[in-house]
Design goal:
The protein has about 550 residues and is mainly α. It starts with a helix and ends with a strand. The protein has three domains: about 325 residues, no CATH class; about 90 residues; about 120 residues, no CATH class. Helix 3 crosses helix 4. The chain has a six-stranded mixed beta sheet with strand order 5-4-3-6-8-7. The chain has a two-stranded antiparallel ribbon with strand order 1-2. About 65% of the residues lie in helices and about 5% in strands.
């Protein structure tokens, strides 16, 4: 049994770590954070976040520090950017296991919580991306989990105070990754739990030590950024928080109250068949277990709070997944004690194995009939082969569940069945997707740009242009996009060009040193057709169709 857990642990590490450097960086999110971290290393300024050389105040600094530190060690590459996110997911799973063990749950149940968490598709997908959400989820998990552990399990006043202080430090770290949400989620969770247990007086007493240590942790950088740029806190509080949460349809990424529900189901997909069993198991234990009552508050209240926010992205619900993993693991563990789980995985395994077999047969027909359905291209046959091999492995593994008598072995086989497929999907990125979300690939195939040539980009994909050419002085054509705040400053306004100013720049600089324009192909063609881009290029490098990136040379 121990050897199987070690094998699964190694497989989880492979799923999270091996694909990190395989895929090109996705635009605009990954190239944005990669470039912001690169500019920290280039400028040596570890206080003021910048993007394309202008102030970029959408987030605090800690996430950029993590990316920059990783790049300092491993170089300016995709692996270095994504490593902090992957490690955050792994550490979060380890903490869940340790937290459940501290409440004297069984080793199997504790290990299952970490396995459920790491095998959730949303965690696997976002843990392999160089974005801030994984780190934010880790720090909020540590804050909430340590606070609850101190409150319910740790004896002795001194030890309690130390854990409360540590919880506050992690709240401060979460704040320095993404902002005030780091205080809102723990506060709402703890308040709901205390009210449920009719301990409302403690709501006024418990937060002070964590709040003090959180502010103490934040204070040095908060003061440094205020000294460096006094406008930071106004922009960060009013624009990035108040307007995003209460902005309604005008908020950035505005979406309905129900927005997160389909992502929650997709993000926990492989455990959905077990939810009825977990629910029945929890029904008998949740009101007797402080941990499970707290986990329910930890999942439900932040989920509702985030759903009420005007601005939404799928990745925002990552902090809700650790408590959900605890609930699923505890519910399944209780269900196994009734001895009723034996039939359920057989039914699940049979249906999933049959579905995978049908999918593999459809892939094979598509492959041998000349790809009438363009899921992948002919030259991407290695991806077909990889997915097919992993799919066959999954079918055989699911089939192996059927004669198995031991309930926990069944769950191990179930997890094992899906990890190779998840790994294969992490490594297999269709060219169709690359053409649309990875402009860096197009830039690699274009003729080189000399250091003296003037680079101009549209609001997309200027992040990729900065990152690929290692330049933080790219001029922006027509629309400032996410660096609008920085470009409004008097010393940077000249870097935002209208179409007329761009045409004049080309006429003036065409021969020496030359101008290179990078923008989406369809927008470039529209600009040429409507007469806003009047100058004739000397060379054009276009993506495969109108949704891709073009590199246009004026020299």
């Amino acid at each position: 049994m121990r050897s199987s857990r070690v094998f699964l642990l190694l497989l989880f590490l492979a799923v999270f770590l091996l694909p990190l450097g395989v895929r090109p960086l996705f635009s605009p999110d990954e190239t944005r954070y990669a470039e912001a971290a690169r500019e920290i290393l280039e400028s040596g300024d570890w206080i003021v976040p910048r993007l394309n050389g202008v102030c970029y105040f959408e987030k605090p600094i800690l996430g950029y520090w993590a990316f920059a530190g990783s790049m300092k060690i491993f170089g300016l590459n995709a692996f270095a950017l994504r490593l902090p996110s992957a490690l955050a997911m792994i550490f979060c799973a380890v903490f869940l296991v340790l937290m459940m063990r501290s409440f004297r749950t069984g080793l199997r149940e504790s290990f299952l919580s970490g396995a459920v968490f790491l095998s959730m598709p949303m965690n696997v997908m976002l843990g392999g991306l160089g974005i801030l959400d994984s780190m934010f989820s880790l720090f909020t998990t540590l804050c909430i989990g340590l606070f609850f552990t101190a409150y319910e399990r740790v004896p002795g006043l001194l030890r309690k105070l130390l854990l409360y202080a540590l919880a506050g430090i992690f709240a401060g770290a979460a704040f320095m990754v993404k902002g005030f949400l780091a205080f809102a989620l723990p506060a709402l969770t703890v308040t709901a739990y205390l009210l449920w247990n009719r301990r409302w007086k403690e709501i006024l007493l418990l937060p002070w030590i964590p709040l003090f240590t959180a502010l103490l942790f934040i204070a040095p950088w908060a003061w440094a950024i205020h000294q460096a740029d006094p406008d930071y806190w106004h922009y960060f509080i009013v624009v990035e928080h108040w307007q995003r949460f209460f902005g309604g349809q005008k908020a950035q990424h505005a979406a309905s109250f129900l927005y997160f529900i389909p992502f929650l189901f997709a993000g926990t997909a492989i455990w959905i068949p077990f939810l009825p069993a977990a629910f029945i198991g929890l029904r008998h234990t949740i009101f007797r277990s402080p941990l499970l009552k707290f986990a329910l508050c930890w999942f439900l209240i932040p989920f509702l709070f985030l759903s009420c926010s005007s601005g939404k992205l799928a990745s925002y619900i990552l902090p809700c997944l650790p408590p959900l993993a605890i609930l699923i693991a505890a519910g399944l563990a209780e269900w196994t004690r009734t001895g009723k789980l034996r039939a359920l995985p057989n039914w699940i395994a049979a249906v999933l194995a049959g579905g995978l077999a049908i999918a593999l047969a459809a892939f094979a027909v598509n492959f041998f009939t000349g790809f009438p359905v363009q899921l992948l291209m002919k030259h991407e046959a290695w991806m077909w082969l990889l997915l097919t091999v992993c799919g066959i492995f999954s079918v055989l593994t699911l089939t192996a569940i059927l004669p198995e008598k031991n309930t926990w072995h069944k769950l191990h086989w179930y997890i094992l069945a899906f990890l190779p497929v998840i790994l294969a999907f992490q490594c297999s990125l269709p060219q169709y997707f690359i053409d649309r979300r990875c402009p860096v690939v197009t830039l690699k195939s274009a003729p080189p740009v000399s250091p003296g040539q003037i680079l101009v980009a549209f609001r997309y994909p200027f992040q990729d242009v900065c990152w690929f050419y290692r330049r933080s002085n790219v001029l922006i054509l027509a629309s400032p996009g996410e660096i609008e705040y920085g470009l409004r400053r008097p010393d940077q306004k000249h870097r935002l060009l209208s179409a007329e100013e761009f045409n004049e720049l080309v006429r003036e600089k065409r021969s020496d040193p030359g101008v290179v324009l990078v923008m989406a192909t369809d927008r470039f063609l529209e600009g040429r057709e409507d007469g806003s881009l009047t100058e004739t290029p000397s060379e054009e490098i276009h993506g495969p169709d109108g949704d891709c990136t073009s590199v246009i040379y004026y020299r």
